[in-house]
Specification:
Blueprint: H1 2-50, H2 62-65, H3 67-83, H4 94-118, H5 124-147, H6 152-172, H7 181-196
Helix pairs in contact: 3-4, 3-5, 4-5, 4-6, 5-6
Length: 197
Amino acid sequence: MNRELRRIQKKADEKKDKEKSKNKQKRISKIQNKRQKRKNKIIKNSKSKSSKPRFNTDRSRFAVRMAAPFTIFTAFFIGVQVFMPPVESETFSKGVSKAIEVAYYLFFGHFLMIWLLKRRIKNAVWYAIAAGVILTAGLQAANYFINQSFNLQVLAFGSVAAIAGAISGQFFYKDLALPTQAEKLAATKPEANNGEA
């Protein structure tokens, strides 16, 4: 009798052990599957990021968001430099001061180009170039009438810098002119509706 009870107990214990080992194996396999899925997801995301275009511009980037204020600020600062009487700097030589002055025209062309691209204006590069040249020529003309002086170097180099700034803005931020994902979806919806009709 005792032997039978022991045998039954032994079988019950063995069954419990088998169930425990099965459950343990299931848990381990679930954890492994989850880890594998995570790894696959990370690999997939990294591949999709690397396959994006070289100059894929994030519209939330600081330079893009602040393009309009930077354009206005640089235009204002260029105007101040022209209309304020020139003061000899103890820190910088005349050549360096002129280079800094010309650099503002470069920034003006660059930020104006980003602003125009963000607003999806067609032929933005030509508008930016025209605005840069008109700003340079107009300020030098105003300088001639007010201060009776005309700076040919700033006129020449400032125009070139404004053009270079516009071209650099077009080169680095050209995908701003492309439609966003939301706009693409909005454009495809009417087509799909027409197809259904």
